[in-house]
Design goal:
With 173 residues, this protein is mainly β. Helix content is 13%, strand content 47%. 16% of the residues are buried.
Amino acid sequence: MRLAIPVAVGLAALAGCGTSAPQPPPPVCPTALLLQGAERTASYSPGAERRPAALHHLAVMTNLASGCRFVEAGVDLDLAFDLIAERGPAFPGGAVDLSYFVATIGPERQILSKQVFSSEIPFAGNEDLAGVSEQLTLRLPAVTPEQGQAYAVYLGFQLDEAELEERLQPLLR
């Protein structure tokens, strides 16, 4: 019987330690994604047929990371990603200018906003590959912590008409 008293006292002491309520999970941030197919782009010499010898550069958007902070006015979404370019045989030298978009998608899958940004990737000397890291903060107004998971942000290269047309063509011609 002597053993039961210390065990009972120990259990009572442990029970008193866990009186705080469990913490609610943190709010879910809007999803940030690279738009499939728009995370890469290619540029050819103006007026040239789209052949390897006329390739100016290839570029990819990669390593997307995101985080958010809910504020009184909505949610601030922090985005970080890399833009990497490889020069082709027709690269004239200097730098590659890239245009990319960030589109916000609402709960009903509608496009709420689209912003276009530009970035320059300089090539030094005989570099075949170069890149830059981009960081953006977007404010999605009036989005509450309960609504965050219903929103998404897509990133991709702003494609020109020729590239859009080519991507719509079947692979086998």
